[in-house]
């Protein structure tokens, strides 16, 4: 088992080397330039995200599609993932994670645009789209679409389910003494009640859960930053300097210089905001929207809230905590969850409660969002007959996840994330002329209805 874990770790390190970082960050930068800085439309995008358009084609509201996507992105990556990035790459990883979010807004916009443009309507009236349909209908590369869909289906059991349930079980066991096996039963039942209701049931839950969990967690971060206010400026300086330092800086911080900081930050950024991975556009394709650009703008706000706001706040909270606690040696902390727990313990009495509720709600929402992604991917490959078996297997994984070792699963999740991103980024880059054309067509008239006919399958 140790040999297998070592092999997986080596594959993970190889996959997340310079080629993957260049491909991902290069696409973010390229699409930022091609869309003429679509990030400038963030205000309009946020406004559109809470605007209903019931007359447009689609299964759920634009806000419902956004919160379903946010449910899968705002998860343990925002809490445990940022801490792990700092433990691996030092505080400089926070800056690279943040930059991957800022530039990643353009990639999230682009992948959502082609997901909506090339979406299809099933005979029972459901909207389906994503990288697999863009590859098939936009580039006539169905074989690559199938590869993406298979990877997405497999990833849902790891990144979307097992790691999230295990995080919930661990935090409940350590903080309130609930046995892990009991947590597995509760989460499995709660998951089954929602996922067997389909997208509309998932969207209804996410519309209520996502705003609550984000506000609740951010409020906790603000309280900690208020307590650590003397360290905020020094922390920001440390984050920036260490992001470009050729070697790890001193002062209790770990990390191995630019490469480790860059690798850890970008990998955790993708794990958190999923920009470039192709998962969130699957939810965007189901939205009630008049044209591809309108929903693409709404979808792009997910990366802003997830990484530019929530991950950045978590990073600053953790770095100020390390600087404040002079006796804390991050070099001996490999678990990002431990680092985050130490940070929230600074809030008397309610700190652990805030962290527990935040992590549970973040992880549970991710379980729901990825259940939808996984079944859409596998339905693309195997048809509607796979839905019930998939949901049963998904709930089963949720049931057993708390009692299995998941160190290797996290590394496998990283690998699958990268492999999913490759065909999706191919679609984004090769269809960039279409993205530019559609953007020019609709960007100044977002209420214009698409004149593209939606095919029925």
From TrEMBL:
InterPro entries: Na/Ala_symport. GO terms for molecular function: amino acid:sodium symporter activity. It comes from the Bacteria. Gene3D superfamilies: Amino acid/polyamine transporter I. It is found in: Cell membrane. One of its GO terms (cellular component) is plasma membrane. It is a multi-pass membrane protein. The chain crosses the membrane at residues 15-33, 143-169, 181-202, 214-233, 239-262, 349-372, 392-412, 418-436. The keyword Membrane applies. Keywords: Cell membrane, Membrane, Symport, Transmembrane, Transmembrane helix, Transport. Belongs to the alanine or glycine:cation symporter (AGCS) (TC 2.A.25) family. PANTHER family: AGSS FAMILY TRANSPORTER, SODIUM-ALANINE, TRANSCRIPTIONAL REGULATOR, LRP FAMILY. This is AGCS family alanine or glycine:cation symporter. It comes from Catenibacillus scindens.
